[in-house]
Amino acid sequence: MTVHANPVQAGLPIVDFSRFHGSDGERAAFVAELRAILHDHGFFYLTGHGVDPKLIQDVVSTAKRFFALPLEQKLEIEMVKSPHFRGYNRAGRERTRGEQDWREQLDINTEGEAVEIGPETQPWKRLLGPNQWPDALPELKPLLLAYQAEVTRVGIDVLKAIAVALGQPENAFAEIYEPQPSQLLKIIRYPGRDVAETDQGVGAHKDGGFVTVLLQDVIPGLRVRTEEGVWIDAPPVPGTFVINTGELLELATNGYVRADVHDVVAPPAGAERFSVAFFLGSRYDATIPVIELPEDLKRAERGISVDPLNPIFREVGQNHLKSRLRSHPDVALAHHRDLLTPEQRAAAAAGEAGSAY
Ligand SMILES: O=C(O)CCC(=O)C(=O)O
Ligand SMILES: [Fe+2]
Questions:
Q1: Which residues form the Fe2OG dioxygenase domain (predicted)?
Q2: Are 124 and 318 in contact (CB under 8 A)?
Q3: pLDDT tens for residues 35-71?
Q4: Residue ranges around ligand 1 (CB below 6 Å)
């Protein structure tokens, strides 16, 4: 694989998206490179994405001001107050495979109205509803919604390039993300190891959707596990996003596309790490299709390995709801007891269930 000017030696490749819109030759080279990356890792740095650096700077600085608010102001919008899994979580509240993640975060999603839930309503409709915003920082809402719109555009652009790399028409995935893809935006703060009770910023996991668009501030911590089981560091590279594919693409391509496992180690004592993660998925009412790949790619399909601890459904809304119920047992108990089995209720009450995302 040819890797473009890559300052991260032996690390993840850096890809310039403007080449997708360049000359025919540039586009073909870009698409071939992307295809190899999708198959090897599903992880890369993206430049040439067109997001205004000023917007990025404002999002990061305002996110830092949010986390610097007094705890009681952040708790005014604690996630447990939202049946739709929106809002703030203190560090230690989220779990990945039963182990505590050590990060605080604010979760935003598509801004919308709650749906009245009756016995016939599909359970995933509980995910729809308004976000919670801090009164103390009114500028956060317009900023994060503007940013969410921008990273949605980037995610969809990348998805079009992915479709082409897989030998499909650019709009191959449009029928499962139009008119409203699922959006989940998290601003995240990882406290240093002097404060964190474990080294686990977030435990090893795969993301769930189409693609994740990750903005890292300046402190490293993200690591990616290759197919051979080697962990590679993915430190921040200024001006880039880290893009990674999610399980949806693994499923849709019968494992041709890889969604590498990754984690975040807590920053050193005295440091704190900030990131902004955006997860783009298909419509909640979509079913993940299996894409017929060209013969040469088909031969390289790996198949899908099923994780018994975290089964994945082709019904997207059901899948999202499952992840959210597992990651946030307090919300599950407060608002969705009726969806839990007695075992899940007991595990949630003991704070045992959970996974990232
Ligand atoms: O904070 C990061 O850099 C990555 C977070 C992540 O992998 C996730 O939230 O799924
Ligand atoms: Fe992740």
A1: 180-282
A2: yes
A3: 999 999 999 999 999 999 999 999 999 999 999 999 9
A4: 188, 202, 207, 214, 216, 222, 262, 264, 275, 277, 356-357
Strands 104-109 and 95-96: unpaired
Residue with tokens 């449009």: 174
- Which residue, among 189, 162, 201, 184, has the nearest Cα to 280 in the 3D structure? 184
| Beta pairing, strands 99-100 & 95-96 | antiparallel
Whether complex ipTM tops 0.95? yes
Dig out the tokens for 32 from the structure.
Answer: 């071939």
Rounded to the nearest whole angstrom, what is the distance from the C-alpha of residue 357 to the centroid of ligand 1? Answer: 8
Please report, as a single letter, which amino acid is at residue 101. D
CB contact set of 240 (below 8 Å; sequence gap of 6+): 14, 45, 46, 47
pLDDT per residue over 170-200, tens digit each? 999 999 999 999 999 999 999 998 887 788 9
Give yes or no for a contact between 254 and 301, defined as CB atoms under 8 angstroms apart. yes
Contacts of 167 (CB under 8 A, 6+ apart): 293, 294, 297
What is the β-pairing status of strands 211-216 and 99-100?
A: unpaired
Statement: the pTM of the whole predicted model exceeds 0.90: yes
Tell me the CATH architecture of domain 7-310: Sandwich (2.60)
**Residue-range domain boundaries for the chain:** 7-310
Would you say 348 and 340 are in contact if contact means Cβ atoms under 8 Å apart? yes
Alpha helices in the chain (DSSP H): 24-40, 53-67, 71-75, 140-165, 174-177, 247-252, 295-298, 316-327, 329-335, 342-349
